[in-house]
Amino acid sequence: MTTLLYLCAAFKMALSVKHLLGIKELQTEDLHSIFHTARNFKQVLQQPVRKVPALRDTTIANIFFENSTRTRLSFELAEKRLSADVVNFSASGSSVSKGETLIDTVHNILAMKVDMVVMRHSASGAPWFLARHTDAAIINAGDGINEHPTQALLDAFSMQEKLGDLKGRRIAIIGDIMHSRVALSNIYCLNMLGAEVLVCGPPTLIPKHIESLGVRVEYDLEKALKWCEVANVLRIQLERQHKPLFSTLREYALYYGVNKRLLDALEKEIVIMHPGPINRGVELNSDVADGKSSIILNQVENGVAVRMAVVYLLSGATAEQRV
Ligand code: CP
Hints:
This protein has helices at 2-10, 28-45, 70-81, 102-110, 126-133, 149-163, 181-192, 221-227, 249-256, 260-264, 286-289, 296-314, 319-322, and strands at residues 59-64, 85-90, 116-121, 137-143, 170-174, 196-200, 216-218, 230-233, 271-273. The protein has 323 residues and is of the alpha/beta class. The radius of gyration is 20 Å and the shape is globular.
């Protein structure tokens, strides 16, 4: 807490962007500012009073047009820990079901004097569209198959806690790369931090030309696990697959499911991550998800501190106003 107040008083910290739309738009310095601030907020969250008065005069709307457990709760908690006023909106049960457009929905929410919008939407690019049409700061909480920037930030933050500096570290992203916004944001973020990145999955779930993003491709799961220090295992996103891209879930689990037998055969320990929700027994077995190498719940814990940092740094208030 003392450190945080010192930081606030000493600097007018800010990011190079007004909105957090994607990792692709950030500078490496932004990543370091977010991680630095998140480390301080993580200390705050371990105090008996897990709250700071930083955003007392800020109102934030969390608008979710797609289902979420972790991201939504994590943003809400982060905002409340910063003392912001928070309103939550779900498309289900709203006037969206009566045909109201995205822009009308958001303009109506903003007319109630909202300063910041956290949005999840199934359409890739929706947060960019919103940012062009509103004055509020927009945070992308996941747009279609494009980006999920705060997930990548909390993933990198969690990897740093385990491994330190990620420069030269070998990170494998395993599973449904094609439909994963987590994969794309992770690739951008890890590249900026100097990590080596490999993607692994069946050929039908690996986008063509993905090597142009500076990643290796490996179709053999055992080779990928042997190569890496961290395996970030992704969910099979059946809801985004409009035609079958592999025979059966059983076959997928047979060739690409990460299980204890595979980890035991490695002559080293690797870190296991998953952004959630997990399809247990498909991409990840319970003996691995709940095993000693897993940092899945650390990722969830770190999500609150990282999102506090993002919201705080985008809030636009000066250091003097915040303290
Ligand atoms: N990781 C993640 O985005 O989870 P939710 O869909 O539950 O928010």
